[in-house]
## 1
Amino acid sequence: MPELPEVETISKDLNKKIPGLKIRDFWTDFKAGKGLGKNIQLPPDIGKFKKEIISRKILKVYRKGKNILIDLSGGKLLLIHQKMTGHLLVGKWQINKVKSLKLKVQSLVSGEMQEKVNNYIHAIFYLSNGRQLALSDLRKFAKIMAGDKDKIEALPDLKNLGPDPLELTEKEFVEILNKQKGKIKQILMDQEILSGIGNIYSDEILWFAKIHPFARVEKLSNKNLKNIYKYTRQVLKEAIKLRGASISDYRDPEGKSGGYDKIRRVYRREGEKCPLTSLGTGLYCNGIIKRIKIGGRSAHFCSKCQKL
């Protein structure tokens, strides 16, 4: 799932490309009533949805948690949550009917846009400059909604989000964690406590802080919590600079991969040696990266320097 660094990259890129343009039309292969996992999540009345967005000017694109928000003229707000495998692309596509009577969406832009991961197009916003904003989503879990800005902001999708970890002071961050109980990895990934951190970056943060993912947050010292704050900022900023991680489906609006997966320390490194070295010695810690299950998700950690 795209996390804070990936969503931040997409939002910033889109904010350079599409403000000032109008939405001319909208297409989707969504079919009402099919349910989660079979179609992207859209309001059941596509006609009404179109009325909320068509002819509106795009004013601004920004991020809240893992949500991409697009301010439209007339006080409207478009919300897109990319969920597990979705990402937004800016380009040109052509919709063709094939022999099976199914629709095939073909990219008219060469290069990275031709990569298979960029060709699961299920929604297209047609823009006034002749370009299109499209959602590619292999598993079709993504969510799109639009309406009056105050009404969208009042929905649980946004209202219940915790604060952005990059906007917190050390004191605020520690105070938030001191109020929690449970395993630290689950706390970091709980979007109502802190918004934007997911599986990838919680693993990376805890490796830097040398804290086991199963460690109980209520038993961690203030020094531990301050270290988590320090490395949360370090890891997220580093990942933003590298334009996110493209370990699986994430790509930027031009269809290009991010660079963080090339330097990730523990996430999906099961069976490899821990990359920690003793400064000035070049000696590795000799721990092996292990994977365990936690709340239906995987956690990766060093068996030696992240002991429980």
## 2
Amino acid sequence: MRALLGQVTLRFYAELNDFLPPYRRQVAFVQPLSGRTSVKDLVEGLGVPHTEVDLILVNGEPVDFAYIVQDGDRISVYPVFESIDISPLTRLRPRPLRVPRFVLDVHLGKLAVYLRMLGFDTLYGNDYDDATLARLAADQRRILLTRDRGLLRRSVVTHGYYVRATVPRQQLVEVIRRFDLLGSIAPFRRCMRCNGLLAPVAKQDVIDQLPPRTRRSYDEFYRCRECTRVYWKGSHFLRMQQFIDQLRASE
């Protein structure tokens, strides 16, 4: 059994409390130290992924993830700031990606469809393992969306987010608000099946792929450049547009 080397006092703020057990939420609590540890390892050991953290203050001073905690430290841990400028301090998160692109874990297939539907570059595969997800996020500079907290603790993942909601439409609203995507929505840009780009196509070029009712009712069509799936602005498009309008009205 390791001997205790002291203790620290921690306090997590705002949505970081989602990762803590109820008795540790919104309060300062004491954490024993059993060995030399960085503040990053300490925070992640308590269940909070580093991708969710934007600022750590130790005894009132900003530190980076490599800081080695000391007996008696008072540690305050803050989430990503959306509206408060903390640039004079030591911000831990890398700068936001100029163009938001995503890769999603196996639990978020419906969310992937919704994001593609709204025009966002979204990778998803039900056979992606954790190593593949982390590599895609790092190599292609994508935001990793996941329901697996452990996946966000991988050091190669610099941009990631733990999706709290469990209902796909609620997940979509959560992600749009978290990454301020409302102004970037562009329906009929990407294929909902494979994420390929769509291009306008003449009706006569795809008429043999259309149901009889669609042939009679629609004249504007799009085709995926990758898998050749054909799209048109049917009732699903109207429902999508209503959803977008509702989302904008709620802001």
## 3
Amino acid sequence: MADFDLQPKLMIGEGWADFALLDSGHGRKLERYGDYRFIRPEPQAMWSPRQQDWSAHGEFVPGSDEDGGGRWHFDKAVPREGWDLTRGDVRFTASCTPFRHLGFFPDMAPVWDWMGGQLAGKDDASTLNLFGYTGVGTLSLSEHGPVTHVDASKKSVAQARANAALSGMEQRPVRWIVDDAAKFTAREVRRGKRYDGIILDPPKFGRGPEGEVWRLEESLPGLIGDCAQLLDADSRFLFLTVYAVRMSSLAIAGLLAEAVAHLPGTVEHGDLAIHEEQADGRVLPTAIFARWRAA
């Protein structure tokens, strides 16, 4: 039976050559993506900015609706088709999406590294990336063996495949699947499949390719239960991240602990965060996570 570590953990991401959190405060954050600077909303930046110069190429101004909406305002030219960034061996395209994101989630970088550490020594690990988006995490995992990448958006999966080609990784053993994550996972359980590792990054609300409705609080328990059935005593990890919900990491860790009660190892939980680039920079929390690890 897996141990449940009640003490919260922090997974803090640092910037790299093509990304930095420059400053944050008053509910916003200033970031650099390659040669371009952007301002985006960040409700958890409750403190005051430290820098006076927040000049940026663009800013995403949210709508009045708490559940979303808003638009980009640009002060300087930005390539509308996107521009290429690199982290390690993975190259990918960043762009200003209608959903305020830039085509990937930089706070996931320590998660990609952590998963690689869990798979160290394996070159045939079979992993599953649910809600895989544009595939940066998938390409990182593909170094260790075959990956099944699932997302309900045809556009996101097409971008993921384009990122694979951009990285010179189009020949790696990745299954690119456009499907509802919950339906796909349930089918994998019926097929008796197993994985060495699973990562899932579900939205608060979403729709599958055939109109399936996803509501996090209602849909997550069943999906986690199915994911746990795809793991066994030889598996290495299950990693869950949750954004923009009024929920504790302790709550999602409790759900995960119940699902993996048949496995050895440890369940942990905490916050994802990004460190501002200056030496005395603050740590900005961005999401909560729960994870099971075999060792």
